[in-house]
Amino acid sequence: MPRIIQGNANRVNTQDLSRVTYDYDYPDGLDLRPDSKLSNRIVDEVLARAREAYDVVSERHSSWLHMDKVLKAYKWVDEEEEKVREKDPRKPVSIVFPYTYAIKETLVTYLISSLLQTPVFSYEGVGPDDTIGAILLEQKVQMDCVKTKVALSLHTMFSDAVSYGIGVATPGWDIRRGTSYRTVDKGMMGRLGRFMGRSSEQISEPNAILYEGNSLTTIDPYLVLPDPNVSVHEIQKGDFYGWVEETSLIQVLHSEQSDEDMFNAKYLKHLHTRRSTFTSDNDRVMRSRDGDSTSSVIDFVDNIHMYINLIPKDWGLGESEYPEKWLFVVSADSIVLKAKPLGLNHGMFPIVTAAPDFDGYSALPLSRLELLQGLQTTIDWLFNSHIANVRKAINNTLIVDPYMINMKDLRTNEPAKLVRTRKPAWGKGVSNAVYQLQIQDITRQHIADTSWIVNWMNQVSGVDESMMGSLRQGGPERLTGTEFQGTRQSAMSRLNKMASVISSMAMQDLGYFFASHTQQLMSQDTFVKISGDQQEMLMQEYGKIRNNRVNVSPSDLHVDFDIVVRDGGAAGNGDAQVWLQLFNILMSNPETTRNFDITRIFKHIAREMGAKNVNDFVRQGGDITPQMLSDDEVQKQVQAGNMVPLS
């Protein structure tokens, strides 16, 4: 049974700290030493909220564990089956038919192709003066997405959303420090000294900022601690949101060294256990560690991160009587490592959730794959029962008279064995000594039934064979182009809905967080790469751009912006052939060319056919509009100096 956390349960783990004291400077003069009154108050409040959330989340663990077996295991091996295999390794195990896995991969692939286009997040300036700043902001955020590998975190979030019904991630601001080298000129005259024979030297700057930018960390749904009183799409209306971080003592000490807001990490060295009850009670976490909790090499530490909307005066954290959002980190259910007001300009919990199949009310909605558990279990049973029956049929089931047959000879596995009769049977014949029992295959129809269930799983999930890279199987009639296109478009509409929900629920908030954090936290200049239409606009602002890169300072990004929300459609999934026919009609009619933007239409067709870098092929230096002139008109323009020969 889970250990109930209430009152002063944290003191169980702090009894070893009575004789240990470290000289920490706590923020705002607060007394946050372990086992102090304020520290105990914070720990109790955080653990109370964590328990309330965990009691709700843990109810879903059994269903999620079943999903893990279906998606990550290729066979079932229970205790009874394992005992049988120890006696005879040739015995088969139950196979997991991986069709749910195939559906998951198809759904995640579509989400990636529709939501991870370049740039991942697009911004537009609100006013005319914000246009250039919005372009630079978009390129800076895109550079962060590449450098901190945001796409990998988004892949995990999409996968969790499809598998468990909810994918959770938290944006952060990554600062990487190290030794920086730069070249300076010797002498008082600086660069002018080069003309006087003076040289330059290279100097180093230790602990310099090598890179700063946005990052994204995904949170395991098993370890998430949401406010259960609000729906999954309204987490900003909740009073708290948290999660458990699994880390090590070395990583915690390293974080304290680089993060000025952390403290008390050294006290962790004196605890008997650094685990949290929310991982000790978690079957998934304990099973994944496979006994590592007793490792003598890694010192595991569990940290509870909790955003709480609170009144500082009521908590003894300040004089304000109005709600503020604070961040707390409680390690090992006992020691406060961080307590600070968020102080973010957007005033929101920096958390995003993706729940494509939410119902508008539940804190933890069911996933689309969870709805397929019954069908998946049926397929596994049909498949394995058929295999078991076939194995039984191909292995001889014999009725033997042991009085007539030497049983030791009969049990040998040699292909050409010699079975001797016993002495009392000599001369009496062997026709009645052994009889082959006839076994009827009652599972012959199971494979056909499996195909029938697979079709229902496709209908429930919104995935068909064409999206998995295969054509429709079965049926006497030929697959027509109209049937293929109509079926595919209907399936795409359902997937578009899923991607559109994630775009509005998670990607829109994440794009806003990345932009707001960049404006607030960026401290030094950087260079961003510009290409395509944006380069033309920036050339008008900055003049000539060297190497397609522009220097960006923090002040350049302080603009009002709007986020361009994607509609959920994947590039390359449109009917490009229809667009090509329309394009030919437009080009053949002078009237339509005057009323439609042919260049933009061409770019749209290229994107529908899968091109991702159309703007890289745009001619630099402005558009050239051809004109038809007669020879006399050309001669007049040359004489006036308006035209010159090409060579």
Task: Report on the architecture of this protein.
The protein has helices spanning 37-57, 61-72, 79-87, 99-115, 131-147, 150-164, 249-258, 277-280, 283-289, 312-315, 373-394, 407-410, 446-461, 481-521, 533-542, 576-588, 590-595, 598-608, 631-639; strands at 75-76, 94-95, 122-125, 167-185, 200-219, 224-226, 240-248, 300-310, 324-331, 335-341, 352-354, 398-400, 434-436, 526-529, 549-552, 561-564. The protein is α+β, with helices and mostly antiparallel strands. Among the domains are: 9-186 and 199-370, no CATH class; 571-647, no CATH class.
What's this model, at a glance?
By secondary structure, the chain is an alpha+beta fold. It has 19 helices and 16 strands.
| pLDDT averaged residue by residue | 80
Number of strands: 16
Describe the largest sheet.
5 strands, antiparallel
Gross morphology is extended
Assign the structural class, choosing from mainly alpha, mainly beta, alpha/beta, alpha+beta, or little secondary structure: alpha+beta
Instruction: Work out the strand percent.
Output: 15-25%
Q: How do the helices and strands line up, and which of them pair or pack?
A:
Layout: H1 37-57, H2 61-72, E1 75-76, H3 79-87, E2 94-95, H4 99-115, E3 122-125, H5 131-147, H6 150-164, E4 167-185, E5 200-219, E6 224-226, E7 240-248, H7 249-258, H8 277-280, H9 283-289, E8 300-310, H10 312-315, E9 324-331, E10 335-341, E11 352-354, H11 373-394, E12 398-400, H12 407-410, E13 434-436, H13 446-461, H14 481-521, E14 526-529, H15 533-542, E15 549-552, E16 561-564, H16 576-588, H17 590-595, H18 598-608, H19 631-639
Antiparallel strand pairs: 1-2, 3-16, 4-5, 4-11, 6-7, 7-8, 8-9, 9-10, 12-13, 14-15
Helix pairs in contact: 4-6, 4-14, 5-14, 11-13, 16-18
